[in-house]
Amino acid sequence: MKQLTACAALLLSQLLPGCAGLPTAAPELAQVRALAAGEQALPAFGELALRHRDSYARLRPYLSPQQDASEQVLDRQRRAMHADVALIQRGVSLYLQALGRLAGQEYLSLDNEIKAAGSAIRAWPDSGIVDRDVAAYTAVLRLLARLQGEAGQRAQLAHVLREGDDAVQTLLSTLASLLRLYDKAGDNERDIVLGQLEMDLAFADTPQQRLLVVLARTLQQSKTEEYRLYGLRHTLAGQQLAALAREHARLAMAGTHIPEATWTDHQAANAAKRP
Q1: Which helix (DSSP H) or strand (DSSP E) does residue 93 occupy?
Q2: What is the tens place of the pLDDT at every residue in 52-91?
Q3: How many domains does the chain have?
Q4: What pLDDT score does 274 carry?
Q5: Residue 125 placed within a domain
Q6: Which long-range contacts does 265-274 make (Cβ < 8 Å, 24+ apart)?
Q7: CA 17 → CA 7, 8, 107, 185, distances in Å?
Q8: Does the model's pTM come out above 0.90?
Q9: Which domain does 172 fall in, by range?
Q10: Residue 168 CB neighbour total at 10 angstroms
Q11: 224 lies in a domain?
Q12: Segment (H or E) for 247
């Protein structure tokens, strides 16, 4: 009998490998949580957006008086627009955080964050933010507002993903377009800075200027590497945003279904977390 029991145990272990390590969450929930983790791509975008906003401070020492006057106008525009760019980034980030919390059966409360995000952004047609983006941003905030509290806990994630997909795709596409704008502006900045350094070096040909030449060459090499690395960062951030958009579209199209019981099983536990 003991031998029979041992054989049965051995057979079960061979037929059901890894049962002890099966995940407790449904694969659909894991996929949504993985999507929400893609929110990490947004801080990288934010850093590059800040660099673009502050480009005048880096350019100023290399500008002629005429160039300086033009760049001051552009600087004011960049700074005004950045406030709306930051709101778009924040709105997408809040949406992904909300998906992650819902997939983790957490009580969803984003009231303060939604208030901080405001109710609308401005269009900047000449710089890549158009009326469609304004509407998409408002749609995302409204969706987040409806997902608050107990109603959000019972929401079907499939419905949320499908309803939010158009707006999220629009906003991610806008962020990607802005990245391309930042990359092009970075190339222009590089050409101005390195071009001016090269010109200064060409005329620094006296023995008294030898030390200045050495310092200028060092700065030139440093700036060349800086612009090369930021070019790579623009490319990587664009790839991350594209991957995020593809995965959201895939889950929305797949009609990921989270059973109603998944939510009701956790209602009692969630009630204790509510403010």
Answers
A1: helix 65-103
A2: 999 999 999 999 999 999 999 999 999 999 999 999 999 9
A3: 1
A4: 35
A5: yes
A6: 266/105, 266/153, 267/150, 267/153, 269/105, 270/105, 270/106, 270/107, 270/153, 273/106, 273/107, 274/107, 274/109, 274/149, 274/150
A7: 15, 14, 35, 55
A8: no
A9: 25-271
A10: 25
A11: yes
A12: helix 210-254
Least confident range of 29-33, 167-171, 221-225: 29-33
**Residue 13 within any structural domain of the chain:** no
Residue 213 pLDDT greater than 70, yes or no:
yes
Amino acid at 77: Q
Take residue 49 and report the two structure tokens written for it.
Answer: 């957006």
Cα 171 versus chain centre, distance: 10
**The one-letter amino acid at 64:** S
Show the tokens assigned to 169: 């795709």
Q: Would you state the structure tokens that stand for residue 127, as one six-digit string?
A: 């710089």
What are the pLDDT digits (tens) for 113-146?
A: 777 776 679 999 888 899 999 999 999 988 888 8
Residue 18 domain-assigned (yes or no):
no
